[in-house]
Design goal:
Blueprint: E1 5-10, H1 13-24, E2 29-32, E3 35-40, E4 43-49, E5 68-72, H2 76-87, E6 92-96, E7 101-107, E8 113-119, H3 122-127
Parallel strand pairs: 1-4, 5-8
Antiparallel strand pairs: 2-3, 3-4, 6-7, 7-8
């Protein structure tokens, strides 16, 4: 089994897609007004409107309080400097965590937590896949 993508459901696909384009530095493929994908090394980040999920209330935009979208980068401090004006107040400025990652934590416009991190200890680097 291969993790292909994570899909975030939103009421404003264009706004959320624009935000993730800023964060990742990648241009999304906007398949329809209600569906876009950012193709990144390792997996895709899909952004869909509520119309992409059948049923009534099966997926509720801006209601996530458990998942964290994580991106590994070469230099989290440089990314923070690049993103500082576009992400609002961070939940946590770059901090070296006890497990060896230097981590920046902030929220997307719908409130989903985003962690941008750099492994900084030998153990943390060894845990990463290419």
């Amino acid at each position: 089994m291969i993790l292909n993508s994570i899909r975030l459901i939103t009421d404003d696909v264009a706004r959320l897609t624009d935000f993730y384009e800023l964060v990742t530095g990648h241009t999304a493929i906007r398949h329809a007004p209600y569906f876009a994908e950012l193709v990144l090394p390792g997996a895709k980040l899909a952004i869909g409107g509520v119309a992409t999920v059948p049923g009534d209330g099966e997926a509720v935009p801006a209601a996530n309080r458990t998942a964290i979208v994580e991106f590994r980068v070469d230099d989290v401090d440089a990314e923070y400097a690049r993103l500082r004006d576009g992400i609002g107040a961070p939940v946590q400025e770059p901090t070296t965590m006890p497990w060896g990652n230097r981590s920046l934590l902030f929220r997307d416009p719908d409130g989903t937590l985003i962690n941008i991190f750099t492994p900084v200890t030998a153990e943390a680097v060894a845990r990463q896949r290419p």
